[in-house]
């Protein structure tokens, strides 16, 4: 209902998810005004004054260009640290109060040999205790879900920047794209597409909910097993996931084409002519200084 109310309250200029289509629509309806003399200014130079600028051999990374990307990367490493603390606490409780150490039975899957863990008991199987169990799991799993969802921001800005840099290629930049195609063609999209369910599955291996029995009769309580080995496996997987996205966020694109990372105002400043297929480079337009922009008769920008 909230989404439908929002759709009725505003005028939708385009249904496209492409930042290029959205920028063109905003410029066409005068809701976004291109700034002059900023055709060589990247997204991280928004607070720098306008005027001519020399082309740069490399562009800033997404880490330096987007404050939100920095927050997402830091949050991913925070989840890794929290998971490591959770695993260490589980092992401490297991060793101190149960007198066992199951690290010698290290296994990826929850096998019989690696199923050692500690259990906390809920005293009944009534609906209120199931709700409490659900809330407990949601509180623990919530940061993981939120972190993986926020990682999509990094994927989106890197995907948009990769598409923008096609403008200096032979085939040029095509603004109209299939929103489903990048999921299966872009490596970062594939990593996130596979990583989300995989990490949630590994989280599920860290818990076992049981209903204990005694003398062939159900006890009538809920037991929740915490498995340190599987928690450490989850921590290792999250560590690899965070390393990958940190590397992606710190990687700097090469070439004189200013980085935009899908930023609408920056795209409006860099593109002076909109069309379904665009090329970016030096424009021979006769003005006293070099000018970069979109056009049919362009040459590569000189360093």
Overview of this structure, please?
The structure is a single chain. The protein has 303 residues and is mainly alpha-helical. The chain has nine helices and ten strands. The chain has a three-stranded antiparallel β-sheet with strand order 1-6-3. A three-stranded antiparallel β-sheet has the order 9-8-10, with no helix packed on it. The protein is elongated.
Short description:
The protein has helices spanning 2-9, 19-28, 62-65, 67-97, 127-164, 181-185, 187-205, 228-250, 264-270; strands at residues 118-122, 173-174, 207-210, 213-214, 217-218, 222-226, 277-278, 280-283, 291-294, 298-299. The protein is mostly helical and 303 residues long.
Proportion of residues in extended strands: 5-15%
Q: Which structural class is indicated by helix and strand composition?
A: mainly alpha
**Succession of helices and strands:** HHHHEHEHHEEEEHHEEEE
How confident overall, as mean pLDDT? 79
Which radius of gyration do the C-alpha atoms yield?
26 Å
Walk across the major sheet and give the strand order. Answer: 1-6-3
Helical stretch tally: 9
- How many E-type strands? 10
Judging from the principal axes of the Cα atoms, what is the shape? Answer: elongated
**Intertermini distance:** 53 Å
Proportion in helices: 40-55%
Largest sheet: 3 strands, antiparallel
* Model regions low in confidence, pLDDT < 50 over at least 5 residues: 299-303
């Amino acid at each position: 209902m909230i989404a439908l109310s929002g759709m009725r309250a505003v005028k939708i200029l385009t249904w496209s998810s492409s930042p290029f289509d959205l920028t063109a629509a905003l410029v066409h309806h005068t809701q976004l005004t291109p700034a002059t003399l900023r055709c060589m200014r990247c997204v991280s130079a928004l607070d720098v004054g306008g005027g001519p600028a020399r082309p740069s051999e490399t562009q800033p990374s997404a880490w330096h260009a987007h404050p939100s990307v920095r927050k997402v990367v830091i949050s991913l490493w925070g989840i890794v640290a929290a998971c490591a603390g959770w695993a260490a606490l589980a092992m401490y409780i297991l060793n101190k109060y149960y007198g066992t150490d199951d690290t010698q039975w290290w296994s990826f899957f929850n096998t019989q040999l690696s199923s050692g863990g500690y259990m906390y008991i809920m005293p009944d199987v009534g609906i209120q205790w199931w709700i409490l169990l659900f809330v407990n799991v949601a509180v623990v799993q919530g940061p993981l879900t939120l972190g993986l969802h926020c990682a999509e921001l990094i994927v989106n800005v890197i995907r948009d920047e990769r598409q923008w840099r096609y403008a200096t290629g032979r085939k040029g930049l095509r603004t109209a794209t299939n929103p489903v195609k990048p999921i299966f063609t872009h490596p970062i999209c594939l990593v996130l597409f596979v990583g989300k369910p995989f990490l949630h599955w590994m989280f599920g291996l860290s818990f076992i909910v049981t209903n204990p029995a005694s003398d062939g009769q159900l006890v009538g309580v809920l037991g929740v097993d915490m498995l340190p080995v599987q928690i450490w496996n989850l921590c290792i997987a999250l560590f690899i996931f965070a390393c990958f996205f940190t590397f992606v966020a710190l990687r700097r694109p090469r070439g004189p084409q200013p980085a935009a990372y899908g930023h609408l105002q920056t795209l409006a400043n860099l593109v002076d002519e909109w069309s379904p297929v665009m090329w970016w480079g030096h424009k021979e337009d006769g003005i006293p200084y070099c000018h970069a922009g979109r056009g049919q008769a362009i040459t590569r920008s000189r360093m």
